[in-house]
From TrEMBL:
It comes from the Eukaryota. The lineage of its organism: Eukaryota, Metazoa, Spiralia, Gnathifera, Rotifera. One of its GO terms (molecular function) is UDP-N-acetylglucosamine diphosphorylase activity. It catalyses: N-acetyl-alpha-D-glucosamine 1-phosphate + UTP + H(+) = UDP-N-acetyl-alpha-D-glucosamine + diphosphate. Its EC number is 2.7.7.23. One of its GO terms (biological process) is UDP-N-acetylglucosamine biosynthetic process. InterPro entries: Nucleotide-diphossugar_trans, UDP-sugar_pyrophosphorylase, UDPGP_fam. Belongs to the UDPGP type 1 family. The keyword Nucleotidyltransferase applies. It is an enzyme of class 2 (transferase). This is UDP-N-acetylglucosamine diphosphorylase. Transmembrane segments: none annotated. Pathway: Nucleotide-sugar biosynthesis; UDP-N-acetyl-alpha-D-glucosamine biosynthesis; UDP-N-acetyl-alpha-D-glucosamine from N-acetyl-alpha-D-glucosamine 1-phosphate: step 1/1.
Amino acid sequence: MEIDSAIQQRLSKANQTHLLAYWSELNDEQRQILLHDINEVDFDRVKEAYDGIKHDLFTGINGENKKQEVIDDIMEPIPDHMAGSIDEASREELEDYRQKGLKAISQGSVCVLLLAGGQGTRLGVDYPKGMFEIDLPSKKSLYQIQAERIRRLEQIANEQFNTKTGIIPWFIMTSEHTQEQTEKYFRSHNYFGLKRENIIFFEQHTLPALDFQGKILLEEKYKLTKAADGNGGLYRALKTRSVLDEMKKRHIQYVHVYGVDNILVRLADPIFIGFCLKKNADCAAKVVKKTIPTEAVGVICKVGDRFQVVEYSEISEQTAHRKKSDNSDELVFNAGNICNHFFTLNFLQDVCLKGENELRYHVAKKKIPSVDTNGIYVDKPSQINGIKLEKFVFDVFPFSKTFAVWEVRREDEFSPLKNGSGSKDTAATCRRDLMIQHVRWLQEAGAYLPLDVNKHIETIGKTCEISPLISYAGENLEFTKGQIYDLPIFIELNTDTQEPITDFPKKLSLSNGVTPISMQTNGVHH
């Protein structure tokens, strides 16, 4: 098999001719794979990305300190008039926000967009993170919990305004590694009761991994390294995958973007949506207070005349510990970013069509399994040998003309699933946080529970689970008032009668139409 001269010219122009170094050693099938990979690469984009970061790539420790000093000097907290807090808003304000948000949902103006490109590698599994289940009594996965929250919120909005137009389309951005499994998973579970036409999958793009001179690394002698271009690859994908056109066709005006791994996420949260509408925001972020000054989360702040996320590693310890006043324990930079954002469609269209190319890539220096200069595959390099380039979803904040920030309680809305073991951000901590939230809901509804109920959940492993089909955020639990409950508690919806049921799992599997998911099958039923 001869190499097409056009391909050789493309590689020569891009300074990537090394990709054909092992051509003579490959069989026909391997050559086809290599040519396919080469033809898939946008070499101009790779060069542009590398040129944009190469000046900073070799910056040593002195340069990093200089950057830190500059950030410390110019970063400011979000101005009060652009921020709101669920703890500081009055009951009347919260209800006003909620009604505004529900109204927009009832009119079909709101969609949700899930960033679901990540695999569960750190959780010890080889399938998409959204398919993971945290060992709830129901065996529901992250995807199923989120789908059922959408269903419940649609019901609330339609009942509130006596409409049938309250549909929340669910756009799901996958990656090359998660697309096929995710679509198959949703099909095999009948889309968890949502209509197929209201779930739109689209795939983010990839970029090759590079060495420090901008040369593409080979994963095998016949295969290029590839990695997703970060959750900020959203903006390119919105444009190239015709997602913006689909949103416009559906008359979407407001988009709620969130990450897959937060077990407490409130999709299309009507209070957040309503707050953003009240503020006339084109772009907004939901935040939580940092647990400690040096917590490893980015903070949202003002830098110059723009808004952005400053990573925790870029802030000096002195700045991280700054208080609002001598008499206050409140941190100056306390708006912890949780990947939970609001955008107007008009803002996204402007960013994607005019500003996406201005978003700079972030560099991650890594030990990348690849073929070395001697033609030997090294699975675990002893030293950092390359870079991966990615953009972040919050990189568009500086383009906002009317930015806003809404602070929520961590215990109500943020418990991420990041680690397979340990004491933080694990399946166990997510399960605990969700169940303790459900305990609070029952107590607020007037149910009687054991005095040491939280201890039973945290230390003995007793369970309390309320289906999202019953309650989205603590509402609709009046039937528990005055009732005496002991653990375990499980409340599910009988979709035939629309009445709560508690005798799980026998009736659930018969009446809910969704078979609980077994981890033994990785959530995929064949």
